């Protein structure tokens, strides 16, 4: 029998939380759902799930800080973190992949996409032991010391602060002095099955930041024109070995049911109707007050659930309202709000 994985969902939006849970449970995984960041951190530290699905816009904590907290903790640093967020700006995605996330999906997403990305991360976790050379042995190159157990770099006894991605890239290069690594190889080793979400430009930017932080030791990293990067050959001495425990991994081999069951669908539909009723009343009050910032926030908050449930017209209207609020166009907001009310007051809102 294939291994079942334990997956923690930290998500405050009820519909998004239930849809994600349904996808994972249909794959046979054990799912725990938590609505806030503080409780999520405590659960992760105590029970060490195989994977965390993390929303960034939680009410009590920023999701990015939750992920960074877990990655800094020796007990939880190897838990895979998949971010599910409405923050779809390229800068947010790149920052997430570089600093704290193992993968990043923007909302709304297709259920098939979520299932595939989860499976990829779990395969990566399963094969992580095979590549533990990345985090096995501390290295000493002249006055530069790289300690994976402490996730720490020192040069001339001074600690150099690197992000997780920067540390991994430096360790990869320093582990094999003189060996040329292409950008593709670097992304493949550091990001595994999610390498496609980490661009060549992101590698170059990470190398540039590493060099800046290394200061006088920056020349250890050499650019091989048209190919990639290598670490300058020098005397390298292993200091000590450190081992880290890893949970079992593996694909469940189950087929994903991309359509919720009839009873589950009915529950989601009712949740959606309730959410839309609250949103309609909120937007009506905000329009009377002319509060553009709050209107934008409200539309942004509720558009994901309509998109993931297939209510495309509702999603498009909310996107337009959000953009119109950012532009300060009250007349356009009112027109879109009227369209929205007409749709919501039908017996069953159309999905196309």
Describe this structure in words.
- Mean pLDDT is about 80; it is low at about 130-135 and about 235-260.
- The longest helix has 28 residues, at about 260-290.
- The protein has 12 helices and 13 strands.
- It is about 50% helix and about 15% strand.
Which terms would index this structure?
single chain; 352 residues; alpha/beta; Rossmann fold; Arc Repressor Mutant, subunit A; Four Helix Bundle (Hemerythrin (Met), subunit A); five-stranded parallel β-sheet; five-stranded antiparallel β-sheet; 49% helix
Helix content: 40-55%
Number of strands: 13
Radius of gyration, CA atoms, in whole angstroms: 23 Å
Alpha carbon gap, first and last residue: 41 Å
Structural class: alpha/beta
The description of the largest β-sheet is: 5 strands, parallel
Q: Quick one: overall form?
A: elongated
Mean pLDDT: 82
CATH class of the largest domain: Alpha Beta
Oligomerization state: single chain
The string of secondary-structure elements, in order, is: EHEHEHEHEHEEEEHEHHEEEHHHH
**Number of contiguous helices:** 12
Strand content: 15-25%
Could you give me the name of the CATH homologous superfamily of the largest domain?
A: Response regulator
CATH topology of the largest domain: Rossmann fold
Task: Give the SSE layout.
Elements: E1 6-10, H1 14-26, E2 30-34, H2 37-47, E3 51-55, H3 63-72, E4 80-85, H4 90-99, E5 103-106, H5 111-127, E6 137-141, E7 144-147, E8 152-155, E9 158-160, H6 164-175, E10 181-182, H7 183-191, H8 200-214, E11 221-224, E12 228-231, E13 236-241, H9 262-289, H10 292-308, H11 312-327, H12 330-344
Parallel strand pairs: 1-2, 1-3, 3-4, 4-5
Antiparallel strand pairs: 6-7, 6-13, 7-8, 8-9, 10-12, 11-12
Helix pairs in contact: 1-5, 1-9, 2-3, 6-8, 9-10, 9-12, 10-11, 11-12
């Amino acid at each position: 029998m294939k291994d079942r994985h334990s997956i923690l969902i930290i998500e405050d939006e009820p519909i998004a939380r239930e849809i994600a849970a349904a996808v994972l449970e249909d794959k046979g995984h054990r799912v725990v759902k938590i609505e806030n960041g503080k409780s999520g951190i405590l659960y992760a530290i105590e029970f060490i799930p195989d994977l965390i699905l993390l929303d960034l816009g939680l009410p009590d904590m920023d999701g990015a800080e939750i992920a960074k907290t877990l990655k800094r903790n020796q007990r939880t640093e190897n838990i895979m973190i998949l971010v599910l967020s409405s923050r779809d700006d390229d800068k947010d995605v790149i920052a997430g992949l570089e600093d704290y996330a193992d993968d990043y999906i923007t909302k709304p997403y297709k259920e098939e996409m979520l299932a595939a990305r989860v499976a990829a991360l779990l395969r990566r976790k399963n094969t992580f032991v095979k590549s533990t050379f990345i985090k096995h042995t501390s290295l000493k190159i002249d006055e530069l010391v790289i300690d994976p157990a402490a996730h720490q770099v020192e040069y001339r006894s001074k600690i150099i602060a690197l992000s997780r991605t920067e540390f991994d890239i430096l360790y990869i290069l320093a582990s094999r002095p003189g060996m040329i690594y292409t950008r593709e190889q670097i992304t493949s080793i550091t990001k595994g099955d999610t390498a496609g979400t980490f661009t060549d430009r992101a590698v170059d930017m990470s190398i540039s930041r590493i060099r800046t932080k290394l200061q006088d030791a920056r020349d250890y990293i050499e650019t091989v024109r048209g190919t990639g990067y290598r670490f300058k050959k020098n005397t390298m001495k292993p200091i000590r070995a450190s081992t880290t425990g890893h949970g079992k991994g593996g694909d469940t081999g189950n087929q994903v049911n991309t359509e919720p069951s009839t009873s589950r669908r009915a529950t989601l539909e009712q949740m959606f109707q309730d959410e839309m009723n609250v949103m309609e009343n909120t937007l009506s009050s905000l329009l009377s007050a002319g509060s553009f910032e709050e209107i934008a926030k409200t539309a942004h908050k509720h558009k994901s659930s309509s998109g993931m449930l297939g209510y495309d017209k509702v999603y498009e209207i909310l996107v337009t309202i959000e953009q119109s609020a950012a532009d300060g166009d009250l007349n356009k907001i009112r027109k879109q709000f009227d369209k929205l009310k007409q749709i919501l007051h039908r017996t069953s809102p159309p999905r196309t």
